[in-house]
């Protein structure tokens, strides 16, 4: 009697919680499979919403991923694309733990993307980009767990996440940029997969591709807002140069995001689904913090959808007519039709199998019905004996309770065994997927072939072991079934109600037998396919081993040739370095020889420019410390730089020494430049021979500094100490010039008056003509000086800007020195002309002195005109008037010279009056004249030599004077 209650406790009744959980899992399975179906139509939001609600009911995404991993994402591209869309929605709007529990499935997303990434067009590229975006999103939330899936945080929460640390904001901005790049890449690929007219955006196929852009727009809007706020905060704490890369990256994303929003707003499909605010014409200027106050956060609005019927509970297989609920088959592509045909074939095959199994079940049921009838007859006979069994009922109940505990333990063990079977089945399935992926990558991963073969062998052994266990389990179940039938016969004394429970147990065992039989058959099929794959892998391994041996032989030959090439290359490199350094040395030697070239004596260089060359030479020498023959290109580059920069330095040093007023000092500087050249040659020798360079390099740098100091000495001697007083000096010289001209004019008038009182006849006529011409010349000079003053004032006004006249003269000190020199020359020439005229009138001078004085005045005034013309505007009226005045001076000078010649002729005519001379007197005068001619010729020759020496000295002084250099 102890075994009477055993069948009741083998399979305990399910509790309400178990039933509710089973119904929940079924509803989730129905919703997810309907959302992720192989039809090329957009995902229905009611199914997605059911999946999202399920994550909140379950407090996580475990059931979602359990169902999702069983979807045929590896077989159908539409299923894979819709799965990415549904996962994106779940991560955004599902339970917060969905982000945490989905982290472990990033590898599954990566494998999915890599598989479909082999398709270069269509959904393959889109799926790869979408999986990368989802992995980026998961990585972003892993690094920033305080951001929710929908990315919506307040300003205070954003500041709390950054923790007021500029480093956190910097890293967060980079991660947001990466997130935004993933969104922009996906949208660009989606729009690129549509035609240019966007005409297919209202078709089911086009909407299937465009639907995932809605959550992408929602994410992009939040990321754009946070990037703007974070960049303003970064610019308030960091220098602009540090954030140049951030600004460039933001500007690029701003343009792409603006185009993204425009493309979205242009499509009719999105009109009722989402409202995207337009971005401003120009991105924010982060360099102006005031723009942050004018920035307005723009929110993306998604209209609330009408409530739809919740997903009804149903069986795991949806038998509804898909053609009645989905769009017409006219919008389904040819590939989808082929999939439907294959599905119909599979359905027919399954229906055949179901019919066969149903017949077998019918036979079992008939057999069981016969047994039941027999048992019912026995029960009828035993009912008469029930009255006598009341006393034993209490004992039986106690025994039943004990058996109930034992059966519970057996049921738990059976549940654990069933779970183990499911886990083994999942392992076999995962193994098949892994082997298929390994087969695709086999040619690229030769090194892992042996590991995969060993893994396949181990998996085969495990499958054989699993199959043997399944067979043993089937035998155990058959024995248990036999035992149960015996126990059913013994339990005929139990109430009639227990018969119904036996029927339920029989049905459950039959179903379990069918499941186990199917598992066993599928395991055999999996084993056969794995064996076939294993044989293929082994054959491919043998082929790869043969190729590997050939590659090893070729590799050895190649290594030998590479060794020979390295030796030859090393010799060539040494030869190239030597030839390059020799050319550099020739450049320096040529520069040293050019220092002594007399043709450079006429070349000048300013000390300031010469000193500016010092830094470049010093940098080239310092670079020589960091190179050796291990980097031949650097050696050649440094040697070339040293030679060219120091060659220029030596030649410009020679030109700078020419500007020194001290000839000996200039020669000394030229000698120091040649010494520097010798030190540079030693440095180049060290580079050529790859020997220590420190000593010679230090000597060269010391010599370089010495030559630079000599240039500073020249600059100091040329700059003078009166550059600040140039304005006063110029004014003083102009006053002196005016005074000299005025005094000369007054004295000429006095001399004319005295000559008129004291002289008469030819002498008075000569004096009047000479003094009148000199007076005319002085008047012309006065006019020239007046025009020169007007032009000078105009030049100062045009050139000084906002500075004073004193600053203008100081800034243009060379021109001012030339102008002062010209003014001095005019005053000196006027004084000389005055003295010559005085001597001629008094009879102590010569008329030629007047000619020389007049010509000197013409030359000095011409110098003054040229000095004024250097800085004047070409179309200046004052310059034109000055030019006319200069012509007047030239005319007056010519008049003086002509007057002198006329007067000289008159005086000669008076001397040569021989009407009253005797023969003796004429002879004496002729001899005296010949002596005088010889004396004059000798004096003329001496004066010409003296004039040549004076001119040479004058030219040398003019070259040393920077004012003369400016005028030249």
Structural description of this entry:
With 968 residues, the protein is an all-alpha fold. It has seven domains: 22-122; 151-302; 332-369; 385-558, no CATH class; 596-719, Four Helix Bundle (Hemerythrin (Met), subunit A); 723-913, I/LWEQ domain; 918-968. The chain is 78% helix and 0% strand. The chain is built from 31 helices and no strands. The longest helix has 99 residues, at 497-595. Residues 1-11, 306-332, 717-723 and 962-968 have low confidence and may be disordered.
Q: What is the CATH topology of the largest domain?
A: I/LWEQ domain
CATH class of the largest domain: Mainly Alpha
Structural class: mainly alpha
Under CATH, the homologous superfamily of the largest domain reads I/LWEQ domain
- Rg: 56 Å
Low-confidence segments, given as residue ranges, are 1-11, 306-332, 717-723, 962-968
Percent of residues in helices comes to over 70%
Per DSSP E runs of 2 or more residues, the count of β-strands stands at 0
Indicate the proportion of strand residues: under 5%
Major beta sheet summary: none
**Name of the CATH architecture of the largest domain:** Up-down Bundle
Structural shape: elongated
The average pLDDT score comes to: 75
